[in-house]
Amino acid sequence: MQSNPSLKKIQEVAFQLQKDLLQLDIDKLAVSESVKSYFRFDLTKLTYVSKCNAFILYHLLKDGKFLKSNSIIVDHGAGIGLFSFLVKRMGYTCLSHDLFDEYLDGIRKIGTSLNARPDYFVLGDTNALLAYCHFHDLNIVGLASRNVIEHIPDYRMFFNEIASLGGNEFKVMITTSANIHNPLVKRLHLKIHKQYEYKGSRLDMDNPELDETLSGIQLRSQLIKTNFPQLDSETVRTLAILNRSFTEKSILQRTANYIQTGNLPAEPLEISNTCDPITGAWVERLVPFSDYQEAAGSAGFEAVAIAGFYNTNYSSFIKNCISYILNAMLTFKHPFVLNLSPFLAMKLTKSK
């Protein structure tokens, strides 16, 4: 069995991949506009993304002993596949998974151009991923998921589902920018929640304009007005506010109960977290590591938190100096690093 690659080695490969990505003319590829928009968005922070992907792959492989020839790594919620391409460049077999077909199509075409095309593709939710892997009897040794867990409707169910993917050596590496333990990061995410609730969402990564019709309050108000047209606008808005963090079925049940009893529904337990009432996808959900750890433990995993790191590639010299100082502090082995880390990283291994 090969020894696991060092972080330095993975970074070297990641930076070469970065150079190749910068040389790629995305407009010449027959991919969707959403893929092109996503690609251009990632280019603005590509060095940091490259370092993050190297960090994830290093920790996923650390302490494991896998043969490259038959070890499959899943890129869960792959987006445009930057992590998948790194896995391939490192010589491992890769499965790219996503909810959206246009992204998987983009991964195929971009990966082919970079000579880093993943080996398997799965379209759909986590159940579709499980079904595909079990049907094809794939040897899944690891799953990586970057900036996805904060959107998943039910992370407890997610942990239970992926527990069946691999054997005793199966490992999971998860990172999320929604680190509730860092006060500054938490403050930023509270603003994101408020923006979604009242101002709306972006339709295009190239366009910073927000569509107010896609705001949380507007979406819930529309659901309530459509199903209960007898309610006046003020009551509809009040119910829309009180039903933040609930999905369609619960919203309609809580509203029907209000009509029957005259009692307004209780305020949501989630402090500021909000979700799409139709899909159930959370908007940058803030969850304490202890909650993730408990849920992972119930699913048969041991979860440990790993300190992240700050971007040191800003155009500002002062910002970079501050980032280097913070990164040095993050090397200390102390629980306080979670309060300092810019993102939350978790490694899950099967319980012995």
Structure description:
By secondary structure, the chain is of the alpha/beta class. The chain has 2 domains: 7-181 and 288-350, 3-Layer(aba) Sandwich (Rossmann fold); 184-261, no CATH class. 46% of the residues lie in helices and 14% in strands. The chain has a 7-stranded mixed sheet, with helices on both faces. It has a two-stranded antiparallel sheet with strand order 6-7. Helix 5 (101-113) links the parallel strand 2 and strand 3 (120-123). Helix 1 packs antiparallel against helix 3, helix 3 packs across helix 4 (82-89) and helix 9 crosses helix 11. The mean pLDDT is 95.
Key features of this structure:
2 domains; Rossmann fold; 46% helix; 14% strand; alpha/beta; 352 residues
